[in-house]
Write a structure and sequence with these properties.
3-stranded antiparallel beta sheet, 4-stranded mixed beta sheet, about 170 residues
Length: about 170
C-alpha cells in the first residue's frame, strides 16, 4: 500500500511538471534542441501561440543571431519591420527575448507546436524547398510497376500522369 501511495504521488507530480514545463524542445533543420521556457509566455508581450526564447537559445537552436541588419544566419539576413519590433524582441530582467514563432510567420516558414509537451517543429523555409512548390514540377523518382519493371517520372514528361499512392498510417 505504501508503494502505491508513493507511485500516485510521483504520477501527480509528473502531471504538474508536464503542465508547467520549464523547458521547450525546438526542432529546427531536423535538429532537436532543448531551450529554456519564457516565464508566463502570455504575459511576456505575446499570445500562447508564440514561442519566446532567449537570443542565446535562438543561436543555439537555429544558428540565427540578432545583428543590426536583422536576424541573420551565415550570409542570409531577414530585416525586422521597425514598426513591429515589439512583436519580435524585448528585454526583461537583463535577458533579451526573441519571438521565434512570429519570426517564422514573417519569413513564411511553417511550424507546429505541441503545447502540452513543449515541442515546436519548424519546417523548411520556402526558399529551401528547391522550387518544387513554386514551379509545380515534381522531383524525378523511379519505382517498379506490378511486374517489377522500373519506371521513372521523367519518362512521362510532357504527358499527363495520375499518381495513386497509399500509406498504412
Amino acid at each position: 500500500m505504501r508503494y502505491l501511495f508513493i507511485a500516485v504521488i510521483l504520477m501527480a507530480w509528473a502531471v504538474v511538471v508536464r503542465a508547467q514545463p520549464s523547458t521547450r524542445v525546438i526542432i529546427y533543420d531536423g535538429v532537436a534542441t532543448e531551450v529554456g521556457a519564457a516565464p508566463n509566455v502570455v504575459a511576456l508581450n505575446g499570445s500562447v501561440r508564440d514561442l519566446w526564447i532567449t537570443t542565446n537559445d535562438l543561436k543555439r537552436a537555429t544558428r540565427f543571431e540578432i545583428k543590426p541588419q536583422g536576424v541573420c544566419r551565415d550570409q542570409l539576413c531577414f530585416p525586422l519591420p521597425r514598426a513591429q519590433q515589439a512583436k519580435f524582441m524585448f528585454r526583461k530582467s537583463g535577458t533579451n527575448w526573441f519571438n521565434l514563432a512570429e519570426f517564422a510567420r514573417l519569413i513564411r516558414q511553417p511550424f507546429a507546436s505541441d503545447e502540452n509537451n513543449g515541442v515546436w517543429y519548424f519546417g523548411s523555409r520556402p526558399e529551401d524547398q528547391n522550387g518544387f512548390l513554386t514551379s509545380l514540377e515534381a522531383p524525378d523518382f523511379t519505382l517498379p510497376d506490378l511486374n517489377g519493371k522500373l519506371h521513372s517520372l521523367s519518362d512521362f514528361r510532357g504527358k499527363k500522369v495520375l499518381l495513386v499512392t497509399w500509406a498504412s498510417w
